[in-house]
Write a structure and sequence with these properties.
Helices cover 37% and strands 17% of the residues. With 274 residues, it is of the alpha/beta class. The chain has one domain: Rossmann fold, CATH 3.40.50.1820. Strands 1-2-4-3-5-6-7-8 form an eight-stranded mixed beta sheet.
């Protein structure tokens, strides 16, 4: 696999954890650790714009989940249990104590799985617009074909203009990063993960999370529609909920300032609580 040059303000770290090579970007800092787990086709390098403002108060680490970025791309292991085991092993290898785990989209499902299967690992869990799909539920609102088509274009050398039709409101910088890094994602990993959006029941994991939870969603997101929220409230009765206005599913890309404000308000409360 050919990978683009890593142009980042973080330290690039690779560790062997849970039987595979895992890569992450460590932004340092003296605050409580915060781990970012990105979405289905978002390697760690694509979320630096989010990591940097959060790193003013936290030691931020953003991860390449297996099958993406500079992490290993095994033939299997794209179910939530293994993703959660990967993340727990990475956190242990980095020596992070009870980090706040912030997952977006697929990453939010992984963060929920970490909280359920490894309840003593995260100090808190932030679930940002997780797909609420699963057995017997409505399908994910975006079909798989656009993901595969853009991924194949990226592997052939796509440009920012090639990415623009899917994300017309994004800045040139974000589009260029996506074009640069999307090709590092394994098509098999993306397809299997997408399929598991529909076969794995994330709702069953939510009540098992023992750590404090912030559930944040885009006010205009089709992935977390209003009629899905009452069930999530019931399953997470102690969680904090926050809607980010002027944002769809891609919350930080749509409204970075308000998303960061919501996250830091939550983590600030955690620091001030006894």
């Amino acid at each position: 696999m050919t990978t683009p040059p890593l142009d980042t303000r973080a330290y690039s770290v690779q560790v062997d954890a849970n039987g595979i090579r895992q890569h992450c970007l460590d932004y340092g800092g003296n605050g409580p650790p915060l781990v970012i787990v990105p979405g289905i086709t978002m390697p760690a390098a694509c979320v630096e714009f989010l990591a940097l403002p959060l790193s003013e108060r936290h030691r931020v680490v953003s991860v390449d989940p297996r099958g993406r970025g500079l992490s290993e791309q095994p033939d299997s292991g794209y179910e939530l249990t293994t993703y959660a085991d990967d993340l727990a092993a990475l956190i242990a290898a980095l020596g992070l104590e009870r980090p706040i785990v912030l997952g977006h989209s697929m990453g939010a499902r992984i963060a929920a799985a970490l909280g359920a299967y490894h309840p003593r690992v995260p100090g808190a869990v932030i679930l940002a617009d997780p797909p609420l799909t699963g057995p017997g539920r409505a399908p994910y609102p975006v079909p798989i074909d656009p993901y595969v088509d853009s991924l194949r274009k990226a592997k052939k050398g796509a440009t920012a203009d090639d990415m623009r039709p899917a994300f017309p409101t994004w800045s040139d910088e974000h589009l260029e990063l996506r074009a640069k890094w999307l090709g590092t994602c394994s098509e098999a990993a993306v397809v299997e993960t997408y399929e598991r959006f529909h076969t794995e029941d994330v709702h069953a994991l939510l009540p098992r999370i023992e750590a404090p939870v912030l559930f944040v969603y885009g006010a205009e997101s089709p992935v977390v529609p209003p009629d899905a929220l009452p069930e999530v409230h019931r399953l997470l009765p102690r969680a904090r909920f926050a809607a980010v206005e002027r944002a769809g599913h891609m919350i930080p890309w749509d409204n970075l300032d308000d998303f960061v404000a919501v996250v830091l308000a939550f983590t600030g409360e955690l620091r001030s609580s006894p």
